[in-house]
Amino acid sequence: MKELKVVVDQRERASHLPEHLHEHQLNVVMQTLPIGDYLISDRVCIERKTVSDFESSIISGRLFDQAERLKQHYQSPIIILEGDSELFRLHRRVIIGTIATLYIDYGIEVLLSGSQEETAEIISSLAKHEQDGHKREPSAKGGLRAYTTSQYQEYMVANLPGVGMVLARSLLKHFGSLKGLANATPEDLMKIEKIGKKKAERIFETLNERYSGESVD
Known about the structure:
Order of helices and strands: EHEEEHHEHEHHHHHH
Largest sheet: 6 strands, mixed
Number of domains: 2
Strand order of the largest sheet: 2-1-3-4-5-6
Number of helices: 10
Distance between the termini: 27 Å
Strand content: 5-15%
Structural class: alpha/beta
CATH class of the largest domain: Alpha Beta
CATH topology of the largest domain: Rossmann fold
């Protein structure tokens, strides 16, 4: 049997989940993923959310931006909802309605997990199914759909800190181009609805800070 591989986003390094994946004899490769947290194959990408993450992303509206991007790039995107569902503050109908919308409108399956250990078991099973069963390999480009120039622009801006697809479109409409956005001051950015001082400064810093060439392996 060949070694199974999972590409894991760098942001997940802070959790213990990569360690649990090692316990399942998975080859864990840490990379910066533009979309999702765990890449299983060219068609399966997983976004992992704790109960609090899931709830916060519903309230902020960020969840459906992420769902749209997952749907655009991968044939079989998955969200793993991890933790005790009794900890939700939102009404049960809201949670169930959100899960239904993700499945019906975005084709995204939401899998429930009680712990990181259980999440590791799910990811291990998916990797075995895709890589042993279907001979598919993790690829960040395998599921990528054709883009227009506007879609590429939206995608690039949506990856800025705290932005997402909806806000990316507002920024591009206001500034007219990537160049116009890059030339914007924090004060200019704060003229856009839902961009406060902290977020404006973070976007400005990302666009203007000199590249150091440093990376985390």
